[in-house]
Amino acid sequence: MTRVQLALFADATDVVLGLAKELRAFEQAGVALDVRHVADADEAHAALFTGTADIAGMSFDDVLTCALSGHRAAPEVRVLLPVHRGFSSLMARPDVASVEALRGRRLAVDTYTGYASALFEVLQRHGVDAERDCEVLLAGATDRRFRALLGGAFDATLLGTPFDLLAERAGMRRLIRPRQTLDGYLGVVIAARTTWLAERRAAADAFTRTFRETLQIAMADPHDALVHRVLDARFGKELQTTEALDGLAAALFGPESDFVAATLPGNDDVAAVVRLYERHRHAKIDMVDALRLFDVPL
Length: 298
Prior knowledge:
five-stranded mixed β-sheet, 15 helices, 10 strands, 47% helix
């Protein structure tokens, strides 16, 4: 049994890990998985760089940030597997009627890495300059922003599933899904360092294989009793009804799911993140170099 330490923020990825735990899938694959939730993307970066985590969940934008950071471990950063394409919705307090109505409002992001570039791009396409027209707040990971939005700490933020559905159920307004506006997008990936991959290749492959197999089980039948049981244990109090639970299962694992079922993401999804990074972070990235960050040979 090889112990693998994973740092990530709470999002849809967590649900797949919960299913795997229920199935004892990692244990059967010879992996003892320790999961630690991070407060924000910066903490995920630090966990990967310092080795306090063997692998870390973060957006592909964050991987580019790490690879270009100048940190001594930056050349080692690789994507072990793509997880999903964002699951993101721009959620707002009920008095915000449109994206354009965000002018003069408080807008929250995790950090200026991650999904922030995608959010700023969507706003620009609706005539809103986030940094000029809004008060931008750094408010941490998705689960933290969900609670803060409901508490009135700001007026709008991107939330990933299941937190977008929970926010909507609590009376918040869904303004737009960024992927409807952008030409593709790659959201969360699992990143690792090349030194760890070289030393623990069998464990890395076992983790990847087990995650993929668990995802395939869920996507084969989103309404399976096991999927419902895991979702009910985590979100039953907020969802309250079987109908709402079924809707969450369909959103996560149904035909419109953002999970990446393939071993590799589509090049269009990678290219979309690269374009956003170049535009909003003012750094030139060669697409070939971006694709080389993936551990699986292309």
